[in-house]
Structures are given as C-alpha cells and as structure tokens.
Design a protein that fits this description.
This protein has five helices and no strands. The protein has about 140 residues and is mainly alpha-helical. The longest helix is centred in the N-terminal third of the chain and has 16 residues.
Length: about 140
C-alpha cells in the first residue's frame, strides 16, 4: 500500500498524517447511520509513521446504499498552482513528470492522495481510489 501511494519515506507519511488531521478538523469523515457498523470518525487513521486502520465497505452493503457499499458521488481533486517554478518548466516544454515533481515539492496534493485521505476518513475505499486513479 505504501508503494502504491508513494508513502515510502517518513516525510511523506508525516505529510499524509497532517493532511488527514486537516480533513478531520474540516469535518471530513464518514457519517454512518447503520447499526451494523458504527464507525468512529473522530479518530485518525494514521500516525506520523504508519496507517493504523483502513475503511472497507461491507460486503453486500445495506439498504441505505442499495447494497453496493457506496451512496452518491464525491470528487477527488488536484490543483496545479502556477508559480514561477512551474511557469519556467512550462515555457521550457519540460516533461509532465518534471512538472508534477516540482508541483508536489511545492505542496500540491495529487488526486490519488486526495482520494487516499478520503478513504482514510471512511468516505470511500482504497479499491475505488485505485480504480479511478490508476492509468
């Protein structure tokens, strides 16, 4: 899981933990009314060094989700801030990999990481994020 989401070093894991804390403070989390699985969304699913829990939709779902494990839709986002470094790379026709690398160094959250944080908060599953973000 760490390699799939590029959580291979302690600085990246610490960053994901900080993003999850911000998501919790913003009220992002699963609101589960099912008596079968009351989930505590006031707790973090990460520490600065590891993932402590992952949410998974229950097999067969429930009547609220039409037995799919999902209800409704949500977006996952990635915003490329046009700063001086990015402008220089664009003007010089740099490869997209270099643009992405520079943007991430400057704090951009990729769609995959945004989805990963939402999966940690119980709003979707890892499987669903991988399905929509892998090429």
């Amino acid at each position: 899981l760490g390699e799939v989401f590029n959580l291979t070093d302690s600085a990246t894991m610490k960053h994901v933990h900080e993003l999850e804390k911000m998501a919790l403070e913003a009220g992002l989390g699963k609101t589960n009314t099912s008596k079968k699985s009351q989930e505590n969304t006031t707790e973090l699913a990460t520490t600065e060094s590891k993932i402590t829990k992952l949410w998974k939709a229950h097999d067969g779902g429930c009547s609220n989700c039409n037995h799919t494990g999902y209800k409704g839709r949500m977006g996952i986002y990635e915003v490329l801030e046009n700063n001086t470094d990015i402008q220089k790379l664009i003007v010089s026709n740099s490869r997209s990999e270099l643009l992405q690398e520079s943007a991430i160094k400057n704090g951009m959250v990729t769609m995959q990481i945004d989805g990963f944080i939402k999966s940690l908060r119980g709003q979707t599953s890892i499987e669903e994020i991988l399905r929509v973000t892998t090429q």
